[in-house]
Amino acid sequence: MLALDGIKVLDLSNYVPGALCTMILADFGADVVKVEPAKAFPMGDMGYSPGGKDKEREAAYFALNRNKRCIGLNLRSDEGRRIFHRMAKDADVVIEGYRPGVVERLGVDYKTVSGINPRIVYCSLSGYGQDGPYRLFSGHDINYISLAGVLGLIGPKDGPPAIPLNIIADFAGVSLYGTIGILLALTARNRTGRGQYIDHTYMEGALHLITWFTHRFFMDGTVLQPGVSWAQGAYPHYGVYRTKDGKWLSIGCLEPHFWDNLCRLIGKEEYMPHKWNMEMTFKGPEPRFDEIRNGLEKVFLEKTRDEWFDLLAAGDVPVGKVNSLDEAFRDPQILHRNMVIELDHPKLGKVKQVGILPKLSETPGRVRRFAPVHGEHTDEILGALGFSAEEIGRLRKDGTVG
Questions:
Q1: Cβ atoms within 10 Å, residue 90
Q2: Contacts for 379-384 with beta carbons within 8 Å, 24 or more apart?
Q3: For 33-44, what is each residue's pLDDT tens digit?
Q4: Is 140 a catalytic residue?
Q5: Which residues face 238 on adjacent strands?
């Protein structure tokens, strides 16, 4: 048994943030059907199922679409819309990632779908929301975190903002919050018998993630600046240091006993009185901390990254190797926790992917199928709706399905 067995999801989200959301649902048993344009895209890296010459290999490694099925369907055609409406009749969830107004023009919006199926949970993922002055603005992660005040907090003091990977708005702000919203709405439906609409945005997701950093602003008007907080690496207690072999090590010694452990292990007991405390959270470091940082930088150049890691971890110091991606996938803790899984592919042999989260004790998720190629399940899905082979052939010929 899987936690979401019996839940049917129609995925119109197109791009990778929506794909991560529905991957989580699919990993735990939901029957996720990717509804994609009838004509295939050459590559699937952005979230679409691949349709190019190396499509099977691409699909095998594209974990974001694992455990899903795919139908190619032209929603701009009357017949394509009718097919979608038939699919929606017994679906539980629809998720879409178009700009506001597009699903209305296509005739697959919440009002239309809920009229067919009042139990539907319908989740829209957009940059800025279905209303408001920015609703029709285009954007990407960098724009959403800029307007949310997040990007302005990342980077050195008096320097330009540091652009992070698109994990804040795209994957944390939308993928995870979108998943939470869908699961909350499904839980509410168990009580009310009715579905509901979820209007979630990239910008709001990014803003909500920095809730902890906003309370002082609302309390006394304090505006956190870049490069001044411990969380931004401004204090020597919480930062990264280059080691003898040119690699990097992260240190996080905010608690007094951890700082003491570090100072003793590196032979700098004179630094022990200069501990971090909560009053420093929204203040820049004092000059003495610059001297301590300089001292730590010199000390860490005396050993390699791995030598320091082994020494400090054994001495109860919060420490981490700054791993490259290939190093991360060789890390013993990551491997022990099954965050790299190996699957048997019928043509490619052993295929590795990122593991499944979260880890449930009684109903854990599992990989039941590899990601589909474009339109791989079109005939299967249409057949289940009652279409004959001849009808499917006609629909394919006229471009309604692919």
A1: 11
A2: 380/69, 381/33, 381/69, 381/71, 381/87, 382/71, 382/83
A3: 999 999 987 655
A4: yes
A5: 252
Q: Is the dihedral of CA 161, 165, 171, 172 positive or negative?
A: negative
Q: How far apart are the first and last CA of the chain?
A: 33
Domain 235-329 indexed as CATH 3.30.1540.10: yes
Beta bridge partners of residue 342, listed in sequence order:
352
Superfamily of domain covering 8-209+363-398: Crotonobetainyl-coa:carnitine coa-transferase; domain 1 (3.40.50.10540)
At 326 the three-state DSSP class reads helix
Q: Are 31 and 47 in contact (CB under 8 A)?
A: no
Q: How confident is the model at residue 318 (pLDDT cuts 50, 70, 90)?
A: very high
DSSP per-residue codes, 118-132: TT-EEEEEESS-SSS
DSSP assigned state of 171 = I
CB 70 within 8 A of CB 381: no
Cβ neighbours around 139 below 10 Å, total: 18
| Number of H-type helices and E-type strands within the chain | 16, 11
Extents of the domains making up the chain: 8-209+363-398, 235-329
| 385: phi then psi, degrees, rounded to nearest 5 | -85, -5
Q: Which residue from 179, 174, 160 is spatially nearest to 209, judged by alpha carbons?
A: 174
H or E element at residue 306 = helix 305-314
Dig out the tokens for 293 from the structure. 């940082």
> pLDDT, tens digit, for every residue of 161-206?
999 999 999 999 999 999 999 999 999 999 999 999 999 999 999 9
Catalytic residue among 170, 200, 237, 377: 170
Structure tokens at 54: 């190396």
Farthest CA pair distance, the chain? 83
Same fold, 8-209+363-398 and 235-329: no
Higher pLDDT among residues 41 and 391, named by residue: 391
CA dihedral sign, ordered 60, 64, 70, 76: negative
Per DSSP, the three-state class of 32 is: strand
